[in-house]
Amino acid sequence: MLLAIFLAVAALELISIIIIFVFKNVLHSIIMLAIAFVISSVLFAAMQQPLLALLQLFIVVGTILTYFFIGVASAGISRFKHTSYTLLAVLSIIMFMVLAYMSNGVNFTGQNMLTKADIANYVSGSIWLIYFLTLVLFSVGLSGIILLKRLGER
Amino acid sequence: MLAYMMLLSFAIISIGLAGIAATRHFIMIVVSVELMLLGSSLLAVSIFHYYAAGNIIILLLSIWAVAAIEVIVAVVLYRYMEKEELTLDVRKFSKLRD
After folding, report:
1. How many angstroms separate the CA atoms of A114 and B50, rounded?
2. pLDDT tier for residue A12 given thresholds of 50, 70 and 90
3. Chain B interface test: which of A3, A22, A42, A67 (most B C-beta within 10 Å)
4. Is A146 near chain B, with CB under 8 Å?
5. What does the pLDDT look like over A63-105, one tens digit per residue?
6. What is the pLDDT of residues B28-40, one digit of tens each?
7. pTM more than 0.80
8. What pairs with residue A83 in β-bridges?
9. Residue A20: which of B14, B31, B74 has the nearest Cβ?
10. C-alpha closest to that of B57 among A52, A50, A131, A104
11. Cβ-based neighbours of A98, under 8 Å, separated by 6 or more
């Protein structure tokens, strides 16, 4: 029963997040972002963290109001087809598979294989690898930007 | 249950990441980053809930601080773009080189 309720809430969250990219009007997208934030605060409350849920709602108020101001101010210039849906779907599925594979403790049957000892040993043991990968990613990104700028100048 | 929470968080982070690459609207890119921060905070809270390791408030406050700073950066960039009469289409950002 609890799992069914969670799955329903999670489905609502994912649907509201996907719809953000479907709307052409930014104001509608921001309304869907607000709904996604509220549903995530419901998930916080479901994990017995009512204070965090309340803080999340406060942050929603500030963030969404600011986005509303930007959305209203840019109403005249922001209505164009802005998202490639195919690219969004393909990239999100690929990245989801990569993240789920990299987490190494999640299988798709719902059985939890990640234990506390695994977190202590695996994550802290490979922390240097995470720093190294971050450095490599930063270097590749920076050199790519410099290269593209040089090519653009030609 | 933790596996489902992690999968949901991964899905949200993936959609945010893909949204940055797939959209060319300035505000939608900022919204995509917000989605990534939302997914990461959900992941942090779920792991804390199931393992109760460390203090979650500090991590969440830092994530929310990044989200708030991002909103401020969005406002500043929007003002700049409005002043320079640029559109919200990031493909036309090459004018920034001038």
Report:
1. 11
2. very high
3. A67
4. no
5. 787 787 777 777 666 667 777 888 888 888 888 887 777 665 5
6. 888 898 898 888 8
7. no
8. B23
9. B31
10. A52
11. none
